[in-house]
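LOG
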Amino acid sequence: MFSTLQEYHQAIASAIGMVILSIILQDLVRLGAILLGGVICICNIMHATCPQNRMKKLQHQLQSLEVKLQDAINSGIMCRSDTNFTAQIARNMGRIRYRTFELHERTLLTSGGILQEIKAFWEGHSHDINECIRDVEALERELETTSEISLCAFVCCGYVNHDADSCTLPIAPSSSTVSVVAPNTPILPCTS
């Protein structure tokens, strides 16, 4: 089979080399797949937490809050609410708007490229935006809760009447309405 000892050693060395290469290639493929998956995962996380994307979400949340506040004002719920609550909502909205403008300015200053985005993330800009988003969400929940409580108290405490002098108050985004007593109309209790 082998004519010389040298051929025998070459055959052994090539067989060992092939085994090592097959093991290394399998490991390299696995390592490459793990590295590629890791890079994709890190890129997705960076994209989701970069200040520009967080700022877009903050502006969307703030716009949603302003629409809900305007709906509460238009439906008269804010007029019936406690004046301290109304003042608190106004103060919080002003503070959040100011903070949003400040964060938007910082975002524009750091939107020069990927390295500036990474630097802004590292310095905590995304964290600041997330705090403002949480403030907007908390104020939105507080407004919704107070609006629902105020509406329930208004409707359930006997302020419902069904005559021609009454006005209507929307209670939900649907077409449902509740008749509300006009100022000069006598109050009739609810019948459930």
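LOG (cont.) second protein
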Amino acid sequence: MTKYNSKGYISIICLLIGSSVIALSLSIMSLHINDYYLQQSSFHRVKAQYLAESAFILTMHHLFLWSEDAIHTYIDMANDKNKAAPLLEVHLEKHFIPKLSSMENEISKQMKEAFSEYEHEHGFDVSISVATDRKTLMINVHGYYENARVFLEGRAKMPLIVNEHHKSEEGWDSIIIQALYLESLVQGYPKI
């Protein structure tokens, strides 16, 4: 009978066990690394969402203030008996819509000062445009933090005269003006 030398089998078994331990360790490490990057991505997405919503709220605040100012100047012009008041749409076209680009710059300046403590690359873009019907404002906000991006799109209705010849309780003629209001806000993707 021939005897086989069994001294080499132990090294092959150790090699198989060692390579399976290494493969198992690498797969577990890969799962942990992927989980870490997923958590970081989610964390960055939350910050991008916060930046976009903050910019949108600040934009709406400025729009409300400036539309209220335009309404008050229009009411003062309408109450002046010496001058004929123009239509509200014409007044807004002259005094409100030209201020939109300077308002975008003012919002950018205020927001950059507010989020200076963020460590990664971050920011936002605000775009305000007037729809073709000249009665609706389109507000687009893009917030980003590191590699996360959030896009918000809102539609706001311009101030509108609801009833021009309304008698108040004291018997005076009064004008009822519907103020600027947010019609819709959606989160989505940028238009190409």
